[in-house]
């Protein structure tokens, strides 16, 4: 009879053996979360002030910054709308400006003007306080578990 290690035992053993690597990964993820928040904040402020945009955040940056709701408006009829970026079937590295053609007003057809992006916002349904420490720990744990599952399935 073969003996197998449970997932929790495997996680504990992995955490004991790779404690320093896990700590470095969590620190890197925490820094990425902070940077994503700053990027979205700068982009929103430049957009609101009508200043030139030197860069565009990606869908992944918006989601990591907990600002997954993209608001936009039609310059012709002034209808406004919003899109939850977590529900779009797009690559996470897609820049937000590439979504403009698909967000353009359908009422102003046959040649509608391009939608004007107005900002990224938090989801009103997300009322949980943000804790970067626990968020980073969860991201690293999920990534490590997915990697170990892939190894187990391949072998």
Strand count = 3
User: What order do the strands of the largest sheet run in, or round the barrel if closed?
Assistant: 2-1-3
**What is the 3D shape?**
elongated
Would you identify the regions where 5 or more consecutive residues have pLDDT less than 50? none
Derived from helix and strand composition plus strand pairing, the structural class reads mainly alpha
Describe what this molecule looks like in 3D.
- The chain is mostly helical.
- It has helices at residues 7-17, 19-49, 59-64, 100-103, 132-154, and strands at 69-73, 80-84, 116-121.
- The chain has a 3-stranded antiparallel sheet.
- Helix 2 packs across helix 5.
- The protein is elongated and about 65 Å long.
- The mean pLDDT is 85.
């Amino acid at each position: 009879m073969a003996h197998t290690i449970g997932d929790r035992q495997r996680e504990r053993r992995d955490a004991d053996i790779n404690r320093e690597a896990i700590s470095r990964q969590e620190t890197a993820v925490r820094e990425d979360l902070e940077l994503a928040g700053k990027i979205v904040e700068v982009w929103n402020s430049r957009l609101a002030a009508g200043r030139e945009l030197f860069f565009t955040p990606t869908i992944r940056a918006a989601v990591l910054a907990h600002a997954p709701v993209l608001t936009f408006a039609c310059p012709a009829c002034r209808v406004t709308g919003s899109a939850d970026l977590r529900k779009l079937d797009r690559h996470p590295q897609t820049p937000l400006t590439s979504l403009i053609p698909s967000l353009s007003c359908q009422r102003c057809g046959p040649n509608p003007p391009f939608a004007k992006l107005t900002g990224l916002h938090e989801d009103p349904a997300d009322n949980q306080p943000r804790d970067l420490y626990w968020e980073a720990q969860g991201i690293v744990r999920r990534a490590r578990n997915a990697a170990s599952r892939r190894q187990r399935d391949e072998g």
